[in-house]
Amino acid sequence: MTQANELMGVVRADGSLELAGKLTLPAGRVRVRVESVEGPPSETIGDFLDRTHGELVAAGHEFMTDEEVAAWVRDQRGEDDSDRIEEAYRRLEEANRKGEDPC
After folding, report:
1. pLDDT per residue as tens digits for the range 14-70
2. Are the beta carbons of 17 and 34 closer than 8 angstroms?
3. In the prediction, which pLDDT does 103 show?
4. Distance between CA atoms of residues 99 and 93, nearest Å
5. Could you tell me the residue ranges of all domains in the chain?
6. Rounded distance, CA 69 to CA 26, Å?
7. 88 closest CA partner among 72, 68, 103, 76
8. CA 86, CA 99: separation in Å to the nearest integer?
C-alpha cells in the first residue's frame, strides 16, 4: 500500500530543499516530486534581511559601525552643494550655446 504526504517547502539558492514540517511516513525509500507554487513569500522581509546580513558577515563583509554611519551622514550634510549646482548650470548653459544636447 502506498502512503503519501504533501508538505510545503522552500528550495534554497544552493538547491537544497527545506520542508515546512515532518514527514509521517515510515523510514525507507521514497519518491520525491517538487513543484513550484504561487503564493506568499517563504520569509518575511525582516527574516530576509537577517539572513542576508548573516550571509554577508559570514563571507567576510564588514559593515560600518553606528559611529561611522553618523560621521558619514554629518559629512554628507556638511557638504556645500552650491559648487556642484553652479557647475551643472555652467555646463547646461555652455551646451545650450553650442546647440548640444546637455543630457
Report:
1. 999 988 888 888 889 988 888 888 877 778 899 999 999 999 999 999 999 999 999
2. yes
3. 63
4. 10
5. 64-98
6. 54
7. 103
8. 20
pLDDT of residue 79: 64
Q: How far apart are CA 30 and CA 2, in angstroms?
A: 10
Q: Which residue's C-alpha cell is 538547491? A: 15
Position 32, amino acid? V
Q: Are 55 and 47 a contacting pair, CB within 8 Å?
A: no
The rounded distance, in Å, linking the Cα atoms of 9 and 21 is 8
Q: Which of 14, 20, 16, 68 is nearest to 42 (CA)?
A: 20
- Model confidence pTM above 0.85: no
Burial state string for 46-78 with b = 16 or more CB within 10 A and e = fewer than 16:
eeeeeeeeeeeeeeeeeeeeeeeeeeeeeeeee
**DSSP classification of residue 21:** S
Q: Is the pLDDT assigned to residue 73 strictly greater than 80?
A: yes
Which parts of 1-103 are beta strand (E)?
Answer: 9-11, 17-19
